[in-house]
Amino acid sequence: TFGDLEISTLREIPAGRQPITTHIVPADNAPWLDRVWTRAREEVEKSHRVYVVCPRISSDEDPSTRADDELAVSGPGDEPAGDDDARRPASRSGGAGSAPGRSAVAAKRELAAVVDVAEDLRSRPELAGVSIGILHGRLSGEQKDGVMSQLATGQVGLLVATTVIEVGVDVPEATLMVVLDADRFGLSQLHQLRGRVGRGSAPGLCLLVSGADPASPAGERLAALAATTDGFELAQLDLQQRREGDVLGAAQSGRGSSLRLLRVVQDADVIARARAKAVALVADDRDLGRHPALADAIARTLDPEREEFLDRA
């Protein structure tokens, strides 16, 4: 549909960026989680900064409301997690370091929330004396600016936040990113989040805390993120998992597609050859007067809504 658009490929990372290592931390492995917070303290003691990202703001809010930056992008399976999944209560057995078992239970567990996680981390002996701040979409612009200023100057060493830090945040001293309930975020979003560390002179570390089964689509998604920092490779995997949506309509992801026999990623070469033939055919017979069957098929496929979408695009 958009084969006539020019593509610019940027494969070099920005100058001055440091390598980022990514590891998956099982949410039900208490010793590993303890080590996460010990490592966070070590980073702060080196005058570095730490981000802890949560999918929710608080656990006691009205389930019918939702903050702009509070989301659970992808569930343990292929499909995005809806509001009901993100807010379904579960028995709470502790703070940020506690989570039920994997697989089916992961969809029902209570997701980590900024307010609760910050409170829990302030009580952890591993982080005693570490200044902990919070950042989310319900804070005013002035409050957000104040928190980020404190993080930049070192008054705050560890920041618990929602995905408001996904883009536009540049703290060169930030070296550690901990993402809680990482399986609830999309692949591209996780890639963006970990790009907040390793922006100074020290390398970055991203720890993905997850209760997803490693064999599930969510587990495979996290494993792919841990295996590479190549944004092109991750974007292709993201497209394979989320699907291309309706290429002749406005739906940008999902299984509803007007393509019946093709897949955008797997059949890219076929699509390219088809486009070349289509361009040649239209150049020779612009009104398709000599190809009435093709003209009729296009007319049946392009309903008024899709035709309007293509005109706008």
Helix share, percent: 25-40%
String of helices and strands: EHEHHEHEEHEHHHHH
Unreliable spans? 62-68, 70-107
CA radius of gyration is: 23 Å
Task: Note the gap between the termini.
Answer: 9 Å
The tally of beta strands, per DSSP, is: 6
Would you mind describing this structure in some detail?
The model is unreliable at 62-68 and 70-107 (pLDDT under 50). This protein is 35% helix and 11% strand. It has helices spanning 30-45, 83-87, 114-122, 141-153, 187-194, 217-227, 231-242, 268-284, 292-301, 304-312, and strands spanning 20-26, 49-53, 132-135, 158-161, 174-179, 204-210. A 6-stranded parallel β-sheet has the order 1-6-5-2-4-3, sandwiched between helices. The protein has 313 residues and is an alpha/beta fold. It has 10 helices and 6 strands; from the N terminus they run E-H-E-H-H-E-H-E-E-H-E-H-H-H-H-H.
Compact description:
This protein is of the alpha/beta class and 313 residues long. The chain is 35% helix and 11% strand.
List keywords for this structure.
single chain; 313 residues; alpha/beta; six-stranded parallel sheet; 10 helices; 6 strands; elongated
Summarize the SSE layout with pairings.
Layout: E1 20-26, H1 30-45, E2 49-53, H2 83-87, H3 114-122, E3 132-135, H4 141-153, E4 158-161, E5 174-179, H5 187-194, E6 204-210, H6 217-227, H7 231-242, H8 268-284, H9 292-301, H10 304-312
Parallel strand pairs: 1-6, 2-4, 2-5, 3-4, 5-6
Helix pairs in contact: 6-7
